[in-house]
Every structure is written in structure tokens, then in C-alpha cells.
């Protein structure tokens, strides 16, 4: 009996377990009929609340989506604004640089304006001075165009030329260079009278140096280098006297023509000297004297004798050469070429003849 009871009790326990599991899966609530309407109303309100909640959720989702879009657009706009701000900053910096440059350019423009103003003022002053100078020039031209202007200057110049002719004619009378026939082995050029300055060389002839004398004294220039202390003293004295006459005549003519000669003359009759202001360095035997001469910074003028009495023949010949250079300078001043380096009396005669000609008045 116990066995049957145990067998019959097993199915009942399994059934209870199944019921418990079903009741756990599906919670069934038993409602009384009286509470049914209330429960339906409650469920209806819950469903409507759930529907409203869903609608609100969908509305909130739409708003959230639109807010997301607005936020994205705002971020894009912020990035654009940031770029614009950077560009604006860069332009501000550029404007500052440009303003600084503009200020510098303005200062330079002011300085340039001041400089141009000063130049304009100086130009105005120069213009006024130029106008005054033009007026003076016009007045000078008018004064020269009149009878008392250019003609007066020409007359004064002619009077000056006449005066110079007269004074040099007195020199020619005082130291007359004449022709005299005398035997000699050397020849010297003497210019014959001609009508124009360009015919001087064509109108020249060869004569003996003995044929030209100054106050009756012959001048033998070429044998100077051949003379010695044992030569004829009278001949040496006559040549020195003749050179003294020529030196005095050259000094007078240069003073009358207002021409400072390049090599001045220290007059002393037959013992005259000619001065070389820039001589070449002469050889000195003593080493002490050479050291003293090289130590001097300035070169002193040197006098060369126009005579041979107790002098070196080379220095005397060089003095005659310098005297002829003075004659050449005076000839070039009046537009005549020199006749040669050894034709002292011929050059002096040509100088006096040209000054006394009519061409000298028209020059």
C-alpha cells in the first residue's frame, strides 16, 4: 500500500511543479468583475501615456537631430570664422607694416620736399643773379655797340700798340742790330723783311754771323764750347758785352709788351746772368755735397753767366741757350716762329722788325 501511495504521489508533485512553472512564465492576474472596468480604464490611460511618451520621444529625437545639425553648422561656421579671423589678423599686421612704411615714406617725402624747396630757393636766387648778369651783359653789349664802346677799345688798343712800337723803336735805336760784312766760317739765319708772318721762313737767307752786329760788336755763339781760358780775351770780352746788350734789350722789350719772360735776367753789363728757376740736377763730385743737395726738398733757382771770363764754357753756352729761349717766347707771343737756337741777334732783329710792322697794330 505504501508503494502505491508513493507511485500515486509522484504524478501529483510533477503536476504541481508544472503549474508553478507556467504560473511563473505567465503571470496571470485574476481580476474580479467588479474591478474590471477600473482596470481597463487604468490600462487605457497607461497605453495613452505610453503613446504620448513615444510621441514626445520622437519629437525630442527630431529636435535632437536638428540640434545636432545646428551644432555641426555652428562648428563649420566657427571654423570659417576662425579662418576669417586669421585673415583679418594677417591683414591687420600687413596694414601695420604698410602704415609704418607710409610713415617712413611720408618723412622721406617731407625731407625731399624740404630739399627741393631749398633747391628751388637757390634756383630762384641763381635766376635773379642770372637775370641781373644778363642785364649787365646787355648793358655792356649796348655800351660796346656804341661809338664809345668797341671803337674806343680798339682805339685804346691801337694807341697801346703805337706806344709799344715807339718804346721798342727806342730800344732798337739804343741797341741797333745792323749788318756788316766780315769774314767768318759759321753761318746764321737773318730774316729779311716780308709782307706776312707766314713768309718768314721763305724770306730768310743765310748770312755770316759776322754780318750781324749789335752796337758794332760781333757775337760768336758757336765757338763758346770751343773756347778756353787761353782764348783771345778781347774776343771773349766783346761777346760778353754783346750778350749783355741783348739781355738788356730782351728785358726792356718784355716789360714793354707786358710778357713775363720764362728765364729772368740779372743785368750787369758784360757780366750779366740769366736765371733758370727749375734747373736740372748737376753732377757734384763730393759725396757730402750730393747728400746735402738730395736732402733739400725745394730746388733753388740757378744763375748762369752770360760771359766766359773765369767761367765754365758749358754753363756760358747754356746761358746763351736760355737767352735765346726768352727771345723765342717773345717771338711766339707776337705770332712769329724762332729762327733757330743759335741765332740770337737774328731773332732779336726779327722781333724788333715784327713789332715795328703794320701787322702788329692789327693784331
From TrEMBL:
Domain of life: Eukaryota
GO MF entry, a single one: SNARE binding
Region called Disordered, residue ranges: 1-21, 184-204
Keyword entries, A-Z: Coiled coil
Cellular component GO terms, alphabetical: endosome; lytic vacuole
Coiled coil: 43-115
Biased composition (Polar residues): 184-203
GO terms, biological process: SNARE complex assembly
Entry-linked PANTHER family: UV RADIATION RESISTANCE-ASSOCIATED GENE PROTEIN, VACUOLAR PROTEIN SORTING 38
Protein's name according to its UniProt entry: UV radiation resistance-associated gene protein
The organism of origin for this protein: Linum trigynum
